[in-house]
Amino acid sequence: MLASPAPIPADVSAVAAFDVVVIAASLGGVAAIRTLLGNLPADFPIPIIIVQHMSSRYKSHFVELMNHCSRLPVQWATAGECLAPGRVYVAPPNHHVVLSRKGVLALTQTAKVHFTRPAANPLFESVARWYGKCALCVILTGTGSDGTQGAQALKRAGGRVLVQDQETAVAWNMPSAALQAGCVDFVLSLHGLAAALVALVMVPGAAQFFAGANAAMLVKSSSTLPV
I need a labelling partner for 113 at 20 to 30 A (CA). Which of 19, 127, 174, 214 fits? Predict the structure, then answer.
Protein backbone atom coordinates (compact mmCIF):
# COMPACT_ATOMS: atom_id res chain seq x y z
CA MET A 1 0.00 0.00 0.00
CA LEU A 2 1.28 3.48 -0.85
CA ALA A 3 2.16 5.74 2.02
CA SER A 4 0.15 8.89 2.55
CA PRO A 5 1.76 12.07 1.18
CA ALA A 6 4.00 13.80 3.68
CA PRO A 7 2.10 16.73 5.21
CA ILE A 8 3.46 20.20 4.48
CA PRO A 9 4.42 21.96 7.73
CA ALA A 10 1.84 24.45 8.95
CA ASP A 11 4.21 27.42 8.71
CA VAL A 12 4.90 26.61 5.05
CA SER A 13 1.24 26.06 4.17
CA ALA A 14 0.36 29.45 5.59
CA VAL A 15 2.80 31.16 3.20
CA ALA A 16 2.78 29.13 -0.02
CA ALA A 17 0.07 30.15 -2.48
CA PHE A 18 0.84 27.15 -4.69
CA ASP A 19 1.51 23.51 -3.91
CA VAL A 20 3.70 22.27 -6.79
CA VAL A 21 5.87 23.49 -9.67
CA VAL A 22 6.26 21.50 -12.90
CA ILE A 23 8.99 22.30 -15.42
CA ALA A 24 9.58 21.11 -18.99
CA ALA A 25 12.64 21.55 -21.21
CA SER A 26 14.30 20.05 -24.25
CA LEU A 27 17.18 21.42 -26.35
CA GLY A 28 19.27 23.72 -24.15
CA GLY A 29 17.37 22.57 -21.08
CA VAL A 30 20.26 21.25 -19.01
CA ALA A 31 21.91 24.67 -18.77
CA ALA A 32 18.56 26.43 -18.37
CA ILE A 33 17.45 24.19 -15.52
CA ARG A 34 20.82 24.56 -13.80
CA THR A 35 20.38 28.33 -13.89
CA LEU A 36 16.77 28.19 -12.72
CA LEU A 37 17.42 25.80 -9.81
CA GLY A 38 20.60 27.64 -8.89
CA ASN A 39 18.57 30.80 -8.31
CA LEU A 40 16.00 29.23 -5.99
CA PRO A 41 16.62 29.52 -2.23
CA ALA A 42 17.27 26.56 0.06
CA ASP A 43 13.97 27.21 1.84
CA PHE A 44 11.80 27.06 -1.30
CA PRO A 45 8.84 25.33 0.32
CA ILE A 46 7.09 23.24 -2.34
CA PRO A 47 8.06 20.27 -4.55
CA ILE A 48 9.28 20.67 -8.13
CA ILE A 49 8.86 18.02 -10.84
CA ILE A 50 11.01 18.26 -13.97
CA VAL A 51 10.74 16.71 -17.41
CA GLN A 52 13.90 17.14 -19.48
CA HIS A 53 13.83 15.38 -22.82
CA MET A 54 16.70 12.88 -22.72
CA SER A 55 17.85 9.74 -24.46
CA SER A 56 17.70 6.34 -22.81
CA ARG A 57 20.61 5.06 -24.90
CA TYR A 58 23.22 6.04 -22.33
CA LYS A 59 23.44 6.63 -18.60
CA SER A 60 22.23 10.08 -17.61
CA HIS A 61 24.13 12.22 -15.10
CA PHE A 62 21.42 14.87 -15.09
CA VAL A 63 20.59 14.54 -11.39
CA GLU A 64 24.24 14.68 -10.36
CA LEU A 65 24.75 17.83 -12.46
CA MET A 66 21.73 19.51 -10.89
CA ASN A 67 22.82 18.67 -7.36
CA HIS A 68 26.08 20.52 -7.97
CA CYS A 69 24.26 23.81 -8.52
CA SER A 70 20.96 23.48 -6.64
CA ARG A 71 20.36 24.41 -3.01
CA LEU A 72 17.40 22.03 -3.14
CA PRO A 73 17.97 18.25 -3.18
CA VAL A 74 17.47 16.75 -6.64
CA GLN A 75 16.60 13.09 -7.30
CA TRP A 76 15.13 10.78 -9.90
CA ALA A 77 11.37 10.33 -9.57
CA THR A 78 10.38 6.87 -8.34
CA ALA A 79 6.99 5.15 -8.52
CA GLY A 80 4.90 5.42 -5.36
CA GLU A 81 7.02 8.13 -3.79
CA CYS A 82 5.27 10.95 -1.95
CA LEU A 83 6.15 14.49 -2.91
CA ALA A 84 8.08 16.29 -0.19
CA PRO A 85 8.34 20.06 0.31
CA GLY A 86 11.48 21.64 -1.11
CA ARG A 87 12.58 18.59 -3.11
CA VAL A 88 13.15 18.31 -6.87
CA TYR A 89 12.04 15.20 -8.79
CA VAL A 90 13.26 14.40 -12.31
CA ALA A 91 11.54 12.08 -14.80
CA PRO A 92 13.97 9.21 -15.50
CA PRO A 93 14.95 8.27 -19.06
CA ASN A 94 12.36 6.28 -21.03
CA HIS A 95 9.57 6.93 -18.48
CA HIS A 96 6.77 9.44 -18.27
CA VAL A 97 6.28 10.78 -14.76
CA VAL A 98 2.68 11.46 -13.64
CA LEU A 99 0.69 11.47 -10.41
CA SER A 100 -1.30 8.42 -9.36
CA ARG A 101 -3.12 10.69 -6.92
CA LYS A 102 -2.43 14.01 -5.27
CA GLY A 103 1.10 14.05 -3.92
CA VAL A 104 2.11 10.58 -5.16
CA LEU A 105 4.41 9.96 -8.14
CA ALA A 106 3.92 7.26 -10.77
CA LEU A 107 6.05 6.18 -13.72
CA THR A 108 4.69 4.85 -17.00
CA GLN A 109 6.06 3.61 -20.29
CA THR A 110 3.00 4.45 -22.33
CA ALA A 111 3.48 5.67 -25.89
CA LYS A 112 5.93 8.43 -26.64
CA VAL A 113 4.45 11.91 -26.87
CA HIS A 114 5.86 14.10 -29.64
CA PHE A 115 8.39 11.32 -30.25
CA THR A 116 9.78 11.51 -26.73
CA ARG A 117 9.56 9.74 -23.38
CA PRO A 118 9.65 11.34 -20.87
CA ALA A 119 7.34 14.05 -22.15
CA ALA A 120 5.80 17.08 -20.47
CA ASN A 121 2.19 16.72 -21.56
CA PRO A 122 1.38 13.62 -19.44
CA LEU A 123 2.85 15.27 -16.34
CA PHE A 124 1.16 18.62 -16.87
CA GLU A 125 -2.23 17.00 -17.52
CA SER A 126 -1.88 14.84 -14.42
CA VAL A 127 -0.93 17.82 -12.26
CA ALA A 128 -3.84 19.81 -13.69
CA ARG A 129 -6.18 17.04 -12.56
CA TRP A 130 -4.85 16.74 -9.02
CA TYR A 131 -3.67 20.28 -8.21
CA GLY A 132 -5.63 22.63 -10.48
CA LYS A 133 -5.24 26.25 -9.46
CA CYS A 134 -2.53 25.35 -6.94
CA ALA A 135 0.00 24.43 -9.66
CA LEU A 136 2.67 26.47 -11.42
CA CYS A 137 3.90 25.35 -14.84
CA VAL A 138 7.17 26.48 -16.46
CA ILE A 139 8.13 25.76 -20.08
CA LEU A 140 11.79 26.33 -20.89
CA THR A 141 13.88 26.19 -24.04
CA GLY A 142 13.22 23.35 -26.46
CA THR A 143 12.24 22.27 -29.96
CA GLY A 144 8.78 21.01 -30.85
CA SER A 145 5.57 21.74 -28.97
CA ASP A 146 5.63 19.33 -26.03
CA GLY A 147 4.06 20.91 -22.99
CA THR A 148 1.49 23.04 -24.81
CA GLN A 149 -1.42 20.61 -24.51
CA GLY A 150 -0.65 20.00 -20.86
CA ALA A 151 -0.23 23.72 -20.18
CA GLN A 152 -3.65 24.34 -21.71
CA ALA A 153 -5.16 21.74 -19.38
CA LEU A 154 -3.45 23.27 -16.40
CA LYS A 155 -4.57 26.76 -17.39
CA ARG A 156 -8.17 25.57 -17.74
CA ALA A 157 -7.90 24.11 -14.24
CA GLY A 158 -6.86 27.50 -12.87
CA GLY A 159 -3.09 27.04 -12.69
CA ARG A 160 -0.48 29.52 -13.86
CA VAL A 161 1.81 29.10 -16.88
CA LEU A 162 5.20 30.77 -17.27
CA VAL A 163 7.58 30.43 -20.23
CA GLN A 164 11.16 31.37 -21.00
CA ASP A 165 11.70 34.36 -23.28
CA GLN A 166 13.18 34.15 -26.74
CA GLU A 167 16.29 36.12 -25.83
CA THR A 168 17.55 33.57 -23.28
CA ALA A 169 16.26 30.37 -24.92
CA VAL A 170 18.49 28.17 -27.09
CA ALA A 171 15.36 27.01 -28.95
CA TRP A 172 12.13 28.95 -28.49
CA ASN A 173 9.78 26.43 -30.12
CA MET A 174 8.30 24.99 -26.92
CA PRO A 175 7.71 28.34 -25.16
CA SER A 176 6.43 29.87 -28.41
CA ALA A 177 3.97 27.04 -29.01
CA ALA A 178 2.42 27.57 -25.59
CA LEU A 179 2.33 31.32 -26.14
CA GLN A 180 0.58 30.92 -29.49
CA ALA A 181 -1.96 28.60 -27.86
CA GLY A 182 -2.97 31.46 -25.58
CA CYS A 183 -2.34 29.73 -22.26
CA VAL A 184 0.70 31.69 -21.03
CA ASP A 185 0.52 34.13 -18.13
CA PHE A 186 4.09 35.35 -18.13
CA VAL A 187 7.15 35.40 -20.45
CA LEU A 188 10.43 35.92 -18.59
CA SER A 189 14.18 35.44 -18.76
CA LEU A 190 15.69 32.56 -16.78
CA HIS A 191 16.55 34.81 -13.85
CA GLY A 192 13.12 36.42 -14.10
CA LEU A 193 11.45 33.01 -13.96
CA ALA A 194 13.32 32.12 -10.77
CA ALA A 195 12.37 35.46 -9.23
CA ALA A 196 8.74 35.01 -10.22
CA LEU A 197 8.58 31.50 -8.70
CA VAL A 198 10.03 32.80 -5.45
CA ALA A 199 7.56 35.68 -5.38
CA LEU A 200 4.49 33.63 -6.27
CA VAL A 201 5.27 30.86 -3.82
CA MET A 202 6.95 32.68 -0.95
CA VAL A 203 5.73 36.31 -0.89
CA PRO A 204 2.32 36.56 0.81
CA GLY A 205 -0.19 38.16 -1.53
CA ALA A 206 2.15 38.21 -4.53
CA ALA A 207 -0.15 36.04 -6.64
CA GLN A 208 -2.66 38.89 -6.89
CA PHE A 209 -0.09 40.86 -8.86
CA PHE A 210 0.24 38.10 -11.46
CA ALA A 211 -1.21 40.14 -14.29
CA GLY A 212 0.34 42.07 -17.14
CA ALA A 213 0.06 45.50 -15.55
CA ASN A 214 1.68 44.32 -12.32
CA ALA A 215 4.24 41.83 -13.66
CA ALA A 216 7.19 44.15 -13.03
CA MET A 217 6.01 44.63 -9.45
CA LEU A 218 5.92 40.86 -8.90
CA VAL A 219 9.50 40.40 -10.11
CA LYS A 220 10.68 43.44 -8.19
CA SER A 221 9.14 42.07 -4.99
CA SER A 222 10.99 38.80 -5.34
CA SER A 223 14.34 40.44 -6.09
CA THR A 224 14.70 41.36 -2.43
CA LEU A 225 14.64 37.70 -1.39
CA PRO A 226 17.92 35.73 -0.98
CA VAL A 227 18.37 33.61 -4.11
Answer: 19
Q: Between these two residues, 69 and 17, which has the higher pLDDT value? A: 69
Give the global pTM. Answer: 0.86
- Interstrand relation of 48-52 and 88-90 (parallel, antiparallel or unpaired): parallel
Angle between helices 190-202 and 215-222 (to 10 degrees): 80
d(CA 81, CA 16): 22
**141, 29 in Cβ contact below 8 A?**
yes
Domain boundaries, the chain: 10-222
Catalytic residues: 26, 53, 146
How far apart are alpha carbons 58 and 62 in whole angstroms? 12
* 10-222 maps to CATH 3.40.50.180: yes
